[in-house]
Amino acid sequence: MSEIEDHLVQKYENILLKAQQYKMPEREMTIFDTALKNHHENPITELLAFFLDPNGKHNLGDSFYNGFIASIKASEKYQDFDFGGFLNLSTQQITDNGKFIDLWFETDTALVIVEVKVYHDQNNPFKDYVTWGKKKLKELNGKNKKDLSLQKELITIVFCPNGECYTDGWLGLSYRNLTTEVKNQLGAHILQNPLNKWGIFARDFLLHLDSFIDLLETNMESLKFVVDNMQKIQELVKLRDDVYQEIIDHINNKLQVALGEEYEPNVRRHTWDGTPALRFIGNNWKDWSDTVLNLHIGDHPLSCSVSLFIQHPTEEIEKKVKQYLAKGIYSQTQPWYEQKDQFWCMRWEIAQFDLDEVTKQIVFLHKILNRVELEWK
C-alpha cells in the first residue's frame, strides 16, 4: 500500500476520535432475554403483578407499588390524586364478553385497570374493559355507599414502551417513566438486603423493560454524525479492507517463496465473534487443512491468534506434527478436535500483532501442512 499522506492520517484520526462520542454502549443482557421471546405481554404482566403487591414474597415492600403510583401522578390529570394504600390485584380478568384485562389493582381510592402493550397495535376492546371496570367499581362503592368520601374512582392505563395512547379516557404510561420511579423506590431495599434474590430479579426486570425502549428509540445524534460523514467513513472502511488485503498479499507472497511454484495459495475470509479471520490454504492440497489468522480488533494494541487445522488426521500424522511444532518459537494451546474429530486443531496467541512475526509463524506452519497434505497422507 502506498504511504498515506500526513493530512489524510490526521483527517482519519479526527473522524475516529469524533466517532467515539457516538459509540453506543452494549446493552446489559438480562435473564429475561433468554426466555421472553414470543408472547412478551403475559410474562411482563405476571411479573409486574408479582412485584406490585407489597405483600408478595419478594420482600421488596411497596417499592413497585409506590413507583407505579408515582409514575401515574407524573401526569397532570392525577398529580393531586391521593391513591392511598394498596388493597388487591388480579391478572387476566375475564369480562362479560369473554375478553381479557391484563391487570387491575385496587387502592383505597381507585380501581386501576392496566393494559400491557409491547409491540402490538392498541386495538383492544377498551370499551369492554371500561364496562367491566364500571361494574366492578359499582360493586366496590356499594360497600361504602353511605360515605361518599370513600367512593373509588376508575383509572385506566395503557402501559407501553413509548407511553403513547390515543384512546379517550385512557392514560399512556411509558416503561421509562415506571422504571425510573421504581428504581428510586427500590434502591433502599436493595442496599438493606443486597443478597435478596428478588431484588436481583427486580433489577433485571427493570432492565428488560428498558430494553424495549432502546429498540424504539433512534439515536438521532449518531444518525446525523454518520450521514454527515458518510464519505469519510466509507474511506475508512475501504482503507481497512485495503489493509486486510495487504496482509493477505504479504503472507501469500512469503508462502509462495517458501513452498515453491507448486503451491497454489488461496484465502477464505470469515468472521469469528465479529473479528476478521483469514484462512490460508493450498489449493493443491489433498484436504481442507489450513492456518487461520484471527485479528483481535477489540484489543489495544492489536493482538491476534494463529490457528492450525488438519483435516482427516491420523495418530501418525499428529505425532509427526508435534515433533515439528516443538521447533517453533511460540507456545501453542493443547490440541483439540472439531466437527466430530474431522479436524485436529491448535492455536497460538500473539500478544501484539507484528506482520513479519505473524508471517513467519504462518510460513512455519504451512511448511508442516504442505508435508502433511502432499507427503504424509
From TrEMBL:
Q: Which domain of life is it from?
A: Bacteria
Name of a matching Pfam family: PDDEXK_4
- The entry's protein name is PD-(D/E)XK nuclease superfamily protein
Q: Which organism is it from?
A: Acinetobacter bohemicus
